[in-house]
Specification:
Layout lengths: L9 E10 L3 E10 L11 H5 L5 E6 L5 E5 L3 E7 L11 E8 L4 E7 L9 H5 L6 E5 L4 E6 L3 E6 L7
Antiparallel strand pairs: 1-2, 1-5, 2-3, 3-4, 5-9, 6-7, 6-10, 8-9
């Protein structure tokens, strides 16, 4: 039996992970060439929000394959590509304070249902452990909600 027939075609996405307590990790996340959820390639957020306790990362240094516990991943950073830029989605500016003391300011750019379009609604989605923030046109952060101390709408004292 040829083992190649059982392989799922994947591509490598360069990422920077911040892992507790290890720190910064440079490597690659493996994404399916065809997402099981929609037309087109699988996105990093889909991989991180699966109901799997571990994710496969190809580390750069040392060069090795590792299986990281999803609960230990604080955030994942990567360069945005054209497939991830919903140009007509409204932008919700927000700021997050993380458990390590850092502040992250970015935008949520998603089509949200009108009755669930507040920052609080987005953060309280129970089916997702990670949220997606656009820092600018080129950088995306996937933030583990378990490491957020507080969040507020940017430019406000904390609107809900």
């Amino acid at each position: 039996m040829n083992n190649d027939t059982l392989k799922v075609p994947k591509r490598r996405q360069p990422v920077t992970l911040w892992v507790h307590p290890e720190g910064r990790v440079l490597g690659f996340l493996f994404l399916r060439e065809q997402s099981p959820n929609h037309a087109g390639a699988e996105q990093p957020l889909e991989v991180l929000n699966q109901c799997m306790p571990f994710v496969v990362i190809q580390r750069c240094e040392p060069e090795e394959l590792r299986f990281y516990n999803m609960r230990a991943i604080i955030r994942v950073e990567y360069a945005a590509d054209a497939d991830e830029q919903p140009t007509d989605a409204p932008a919700l500016d927000c700021q997050l304070q993380m458990m390590d003391g850092s502040f992250i300011r970015g935008q949520i750019r998603e089509h949200l249902p009108p009755d669930q379009a507040r920052l609080l609604d987005y953060l309280n989605r129970s089916d997702e452990c990670f949220i997606k923030l656009h820092l600018d046109e080129d950088a995306i952060y996937l933030i583990n909600k378990a490491y957020i101390i507080h969040a507020h709408v940017a430019g406000e004292g904390g609107g809900v």
